[in-house]
Amino acid sequence: MSAPLRRGRRTVLTATGLVAALALTATACGGSEKDQASDKPDATTSGTAGSDGGTVQIPSDIADKLKEHGIDVDKWKDGGWEDWDKDTWLREAKDFVNPVIEGLWKPERMRSAEEADKTVSTKDASASEGVSDPEPAPVEAQAEKTPYHDNAAPVGKVFFDSPEGPSVCSGTVIKDVNHPGRSNLVWTAGHCVHAGGNGGWYRNLVFVPAYNDLGKSGTELGNANASEVAPYGNWWADWASTSNGWIQGGSESGGDGAPYDYAVLHVKPEQGSKSLEETVGAALDVDFSAPSAAEAGQMGAWGYPAAPPYNGLQMFKCLDAPGRFSLSPGLPTMYRIGCTMTGGSSGGGWFRVQDGETVLVSNTSIGPTDNTWLAGPQLGEDAEALYQNMSKTYGGQ
């Protein structure tokens, strides 16, 4: 069964025959209507806030937006964001708000975050018979080399709050074609930012590139300094965009929204002024050509699996040739690879080599409860339109 998994340096994927291995190294379709809602992500800039009862400052534009939705700004600052009343949970594409609460995501709170899992049942998987290729053999996830900033700098963790509590996914720094060299864009899964058909936008979304850079254990992290836990700092999402296909059709088992389970974040630093790409020193292009599984060649999936037997502290990767997978004959096919990564790796990028360059071609969306494979959406015209709108509307801010 499968389910969405949630709760100055140039980076390339180098191929060793593209059959035996792929290594991430650092050296210095369907349904345009489904994406229309997220083509206009109307969100606000984030403000700053103190932690542990400190003073919180929310810019007037965010305060006004909260008031538009009947949200008391003072109550929000004092923890009102923890109110998840289903009748007031903001869910439309234009409703996203994410004021910065400086100091909220401390190392211990990050470690408490649970994977944002989406699992598909055996029944759901078998319903796709005739559309999906045979189930791939499991591929054992391999630990990424440390320090991560030298081996997989663009990969990191996405933290957010859901009604269940602190949650975690994975994400990738991507290039901004309209703002070369100074991107503030992060690619992740739709279910890492929005609950889908039965919920709304998650809150307190933060991206942490190269989280736990040295791959330390939980015990060792207790004495780690901030630069080891978050070498590039915390980056708050001031805008987020996901497909209307996910907003309307996403479910706990992926559902009809699974083929559209992707999202783009525009982020800003909790502290500092440089862009994310300048700070990290790396970003990847996104391949929106949606090659077929047969044409795609070998892919690698990167992420931070958090469900047992993993603990979410270390970065892992899986390398495999993709096959096709669909939850229903009426839905677009997704890519599927063998991989033992668990929840928490959701949203992590899938990479391949195209014309000698590493590009992001998908992201982890769903996987079975026995954790033998992963599936991710094909990124075509609708995904590109969502990306371009985010870049053109908010990229330079």
Automatic annotation (TrEMBL):
Keyword set, alphabetical order: Signal
InterPro entries linked: Glutamyl_endopeptidase, Peptidase_S1_PA, Peptidase_S1_PA_chymotrypsin, TAT_signal
Span of the signal peptide: 1-28
Basic and acidic residues bias (residue ranges): 32-42, 111-121
Keyword Transmembrane recorded: no
Classification of source organism: Bacteria, Bacillati, Actinomycetota, Actinomycetes, Kitasatosporales
Name assigned to this protein: V8-like Glu-specific endopeptidase
SUPFAM superfamilies given in the database record: Trypsin-like serine proteases (SSF50494)
Protein source organism: Streptomyces griseoloalbus
Region (Disordered): 29-59, 111-146
Keyword Calcium in annotation: no
PROSITE patterns: PROKAR_LIPOPROTEIN, TAT
